[in-house]
Structure formats: C-alpha cells, structure tokens
C-alpha cells in the first residue's frame, strides 16, 4: 500500500477513538434512596454506533483510494513558489506519482501543455507559446532533473525524451540529464526496442539538430559504456561524433601521453583496435585512454585485453608514423586541438 498523503495523516490524527464514548458515565438506572426507577438512556449508545459506522466507511473509502493511483493533494494552493514545487516533486518521486508531478509542474510553471495521444494511451508534451513570460513559478534545472527522475522511475521513457527535447533551449543541462538517463537504461526495464547507449545515441541524433548536440551528452553516453564495460559502444560513439581521424578505418594515429609515445591501430575493417605504450615493461594488457579535455570532451577509460595480438601490434609499430604536433607537444588525434591535454 502506498504511503498516506498529508491530508490523510491529518484527518486520522483529528478523529476521536472508536471506544471513546463507550465508558462514559450514564444516568443511574435506579435511585435506591428515593426508590424511583429511571429508564436507561439508549440515545448515547446509538450515537456511539453511528460514529463507529462513519469511521468504518471513511476507512473503506481511504483503502479503495490507496489501492488505485495515488493522489498527492486535493488542494490547488499547495505550491506557491519554487521551493514548494521542489518539495512537491520530491514527494512525487517517492510515490512514483508521475501524472500528478507532470500536471502540477505544468500548472504552476505555465510552461507545458499536456495532450493525450491519438491512441489515447499516452501523453505528449508541447512547450507553451510565450512560456518565458507566462508569470508562473520559475522552473530551474533541479526541478527538471526531478521531473526526469520521476518519469524514469515510472518507466515513462518517451516523456524523458520529450522533456529533454522541449527544454534543450531553456536548459542545456536538461538535455544532458535526459541523455544520461536513457544511456543507463537496462534491457529488463525497457522491454522491447533499443536500450542503454544505443537508445540515448538514437535519441540524440534523430531528435536533436546537430548544431544543438552538446559534447557533454556524448560524454554521458561514453560514461554509461564505461560503467557497463561496453568498449565497442564507446568506440562507436566516438566515431559518430563528427569528422575525425578515427572514422578513417585502417589508419594509424599517435599522440603524446605522459611523455610516453602511444599508438592506435585499427584492424579488421574497424571492428577492433589496439593501443600500446612504450614504458619499458611487459604489455600483456593495455588501457584505452582517448584524449581527455574540457574542450574536446572525449572521455573514456576501458580495459582491453590484447591477448595474442599484442606481439603482432608491437611488430607493426616500427613501420608506423607519428602525427604528434612535436616532441614536446600535446596533440589530440581525435579533435586536432593543440590545447587538448592528453
């Protein structure tokens, strides 16, 4: 059973106990001093039974309400400022009442229009015209993040995508948060269709114009691949980020990393790669470190077992050529930014 709402708790605390009036003093049935017999007053007992019956009906109504979809409130005056809205969304997230959260957010901010789909089994969101000057409660990144989490907890993934798409111009971080939520989805939570980084990348590249796709959104996809140890997905994301040398298959690229020369070798039509470093030690395993900087934003940290191919790559290293910007330079082979700190 879902937790009681604030109004239900207050209503129960204000009730009288059922047996409160059963042991109250009643007029004496007989007066031995005068010998006059007084008939007992049954009106008090009837009143006690009626109150108990009323309480029983109220409890049954509350139980039937709690068994259905939970309603957070019955009053429209609970949310008067942004702090009230934040508290309300926190409560909605705990109760998984995404419909109440979405409706209240649209009412108090005057930014969203909620429409039923043509099939009648879904909800579509549109941004209200002139939403910035509508005069409602100002929604912040925290409000939108809570709304995303509430919809994600209820497995309303289409609403997560719509919120990220609608508010991308008002809040760039909201789009990044929506991509991160989609990138961390699992197959058992999605059911049918794409999930994980594939769904996030599909949403980003099909619903968002290229000029509005932030690099941080791709970083969120790669971070999800790192958590799930999906190194192939991380490489696919890097190759989809735009023109860069990694899109040229069977090409060789080198960069400077911690004063040790490293090389990247693509093979088998781009289905795999090797990276090795000259540290003067054995290299039976290698770590994949695409250049990381706040400017180019290529973030990844994956362990890749080279296995029997290690010696073959080391043998091919002697015939490789470098593309570094110089002996002391730090040159990113992905974005070609000289300031990229690798």
UniProtKB/TrEMBL annotation:
Residues 20-46 are annotated as: Disordered. Residues 27-41 have a biased composition (Polar residues). This is Uncharacterized protein. It comes from Trypanosoma cruzi Dm28c.
């Amino acid at each position: 059973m879902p937790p009681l709402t604030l109004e239900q708790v207050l209503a129960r605390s204000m009730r009288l106990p059922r047996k409160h009036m059963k042991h109250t003093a009643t007029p004496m049935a007989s007066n031995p001093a005068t010998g006059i017999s007084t008939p007992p007053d049954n009106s008090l007992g009837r009143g006690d039974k009626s109150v108990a019956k009323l309480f029983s009906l109220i409890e049954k109504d509350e139980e039937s309400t709690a068994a259905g979809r939970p309603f957070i409130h019955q009053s429209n005056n609970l949310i008067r400022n942004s702090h009230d809205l934040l508290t309300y969304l926190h409560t909605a997230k705990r109760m998984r009442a995404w419909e109440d959260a979405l409706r209240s957010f649209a009412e108090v901010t005057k930014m969203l229009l909620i429409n039923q789909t043509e099939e009648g089994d879904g909800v579509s969101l549109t941004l209200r015209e002139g939403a910035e000057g509508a005069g409602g409660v100002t929604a912040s990144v925290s409000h939108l993040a809570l709304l995303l989490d509430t919809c994600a907890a209820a497995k309303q993934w289409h609403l997560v995508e719509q919120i990220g798409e609608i508010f991308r111009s008002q809040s760039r971080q909201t789009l990044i948060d929506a991509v991160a939520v989609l990138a961390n989805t699992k197959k058992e939570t999605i059911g049918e269709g794409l999930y994980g980084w594939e769904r996030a990348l599909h949403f980003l590249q099909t619903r968002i114009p290229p000029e509005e796709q932030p690099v941080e959104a791709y970083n969120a996809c790669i971070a999800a691949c790192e958590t799930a140890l999906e190194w192939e997905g991380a490489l696919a994301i890097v190759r989809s980020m735009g023109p860069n040398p990694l899109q040229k298959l069977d090409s060789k690229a080198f960069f400077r990393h911690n004063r040790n020369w490293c090389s990247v070798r693509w093979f088998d039509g781009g289905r795999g790669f090797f990276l090795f470093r000259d540290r003067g030690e054995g290299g039976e395993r290698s770590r994949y470190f695409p250049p990381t900087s706040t400017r180019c934003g290529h973030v990844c940290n994956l362990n890749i077992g080279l296995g029997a191919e290690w010696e073959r790559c080391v043998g091919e290293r002697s015939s490789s050529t470098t593309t570094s910007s110089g002996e002391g330079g730090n040159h990113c082979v992905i974005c070609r930014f000289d300031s990229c700190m690798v």
